[in-house]
Amino acid sequence: MEYLYYLYPIRTYLIVAGTPDKPNPMTADWVVPLSRKPPLLGVAIAHKRYTKKLIDEQKDFVVAVPTMELLKDVWIAGTVSGAKEDKKELMSVTFVKSKSVKAPSIRECAANLECKVVQDVVTGDHTFYVGEIVNLSYGDAFKDKPDISNFRFILHVGGRDFTNTGNEIFRP
Amino acid sequence: MEYLYYLYPIRTYLIVAGTPDKPNPMTADWVVPLSRKPPLLGVAIAHKRYTKKLIDEQKDFVVAVPTMELLKDVWIAGTVSGAKEDKKELMSVTFVKSKSVKAPSIRECAANLECKVVQDVVTGDHTFYVGEIVNLSYGDAFKDKPDISNFRFILHVGGRDFTNTGNEIFRP
Question: What is the ipTM, given to two decimal places?
Answer without folding.
Answer: 0.97
